[in-house]
Design goal:
The protein has 353 residues and is α/β, with parallel strands linked by helices. The chain is built from 14 helices and 14 strands.
Length: 353
């Protein structure tokens, strides 16, 4: 049975986009359980996506959902998602919906967010050993987002909220978002930053190579994190828990340049920071979706092993074997591998075995 555009309906109203991952999963053998030095490790993927078909009824245009989530082929039911998780050696996914509602008015955005959070909570309650979730908030209305974040944490017991890396062109340097950061710190909510690209650069990124995503997405995350640092947000809210997708974009990759900008041009840095920009990397969190052992080695060297955790982007086929490059990173000892595979996420998100 299909919805519009050939999407396959999922159980309990849930739909997952496979985008080719399903075929790959069927061709592999499940590799659970994962062990390190003979000890069982609960693997936790903090970067995985989902969508609910009921939400489509609230949308005026399917293209909004399709473009923001990359749904081009089909959606799959929960049972098929579990098979793909097993094939990736993932015990638990922390699900999130990449925000596609930031352009919606307050009434529609409220309906979308309320419905998604309810459905996410239902799913996690039905499969507590396999799924946790980041809730949704309407960040375009900070006062509403504050209320929704409280509901996410206190009513639905989710792990925090997924947010974009900007809000319809508005960056995190805007002080209007400060109440959201303050509430997240107060509640101990993790904010998972997932980019949506940089439409202002669409012409420059046009052409071959999928550059709107390959370059645009990590670039937007980089900008978001840099604003949180240089506007003093992380100084004002030192307990704020920020987790970013795709290894934090380019910030960790070229971090030392951030330390030199204000030295070269001090007038461009009117906000006095309490420490060097690179030192804030150790209070941020990152997924390990960087593809290779060398990239993972460098990420850990920049931010610390305690700040890194698994991320797959499932069901999008960016990383079919997320565990493998952790084991292949020879600079990591067994304790490090255990931490990245699941220990760090369990600690950060309060997930018990």
């Amino acid at each position: 049975m299909t919805t519009r555009r050939g999407f396959i309906k999922g159980a309990a109203g849930l739909v997952f986009c496979s985008c080719g991952m399903l075929r790959a999963a069927r061709a592999q053998t499940a590799r659970l359980p994962v062990t390190v030095a003979g000890k069982r490790v609960k693997t936790i993927d903090v970067h995985a996506h989902c969508m609910f078909r009921e939400v489509l009824a609230l949308m005026e245009d399917d293209n909004i959902v399709s473009s923001s989530n990359g749904a081009q082929n089909l959606f799959m039911v929960i049972e098929e998602r579990l098979k793909s998780m097993d094939a990736q050696a993932i015990d638990m996914e922390v699900l999130s919906v990449t925000p596609f509602w930031y352009r919606k008015d307050r009434e529609v955005a409220t309906k979308i967010v309320d419905l998604q959070n309810e459905k996410l909570a239902e799913l996690c309650a039905a499969h507590p050993d396999r799924f946790a979730a980041f809730g949704s908030i309407a960040l375009q209305f900070p006062d509403l987002a504050v209320q929704q974040l409280e509901t996410v944490m206190k009513k639905y017991n989710l792990r925090g909220a997924a947010i974009g890396a900007s809000v319809v062109g508005e960056s995190f340097s805007d002080p209007k978002f400060n109440p959201v950061w303050a509430k997240a710190e107060e509640l101990g909510a993790v904010l998972f930053i997932h980019p949506q690209g940089v439409p202002e650069l669409s012409k420059k990124l046009a052409g071959s190579g999928y550059l709107t995503n390959v370059i645009g997405n990590p670039l937007e995350t980089t900008i978001a994190l840099q604003h949180l640092v240089f506007e003093g947000t992380l100084d004002r809210y030192p307990g704020l828990k920020i987790l970013s997708a795709h290894g934090g974009g380019y910030f960790p990759s070229y971090a030392p340049r951030s330390d030199h900008g204000c030295f070269i041009r001090p007038k461009s840095c009117p906000v006095a920071l309490k420490k060097k920009p690179t030192e804030y990397l150790t209070q941020l969190y990152f997924d390990a979706l960087v593809f290779t052992p060398e990239a993972l080695r460098h990420l850990v060297a920049q931010v610390g092993v305690s700040q890194v955790m698994l991320g797959t982007d499932n069901p999008f086929p960016w990383e079919g074997h997320p565990v493998d490059h952790v084991f292949a990173t020879t600079t990591l000892n067994d304790e490090d591998k255990t931490a990245i595979l699941g220990g760090n996420a369990a600690r950060l998100l309060g997930i018990t075995s």
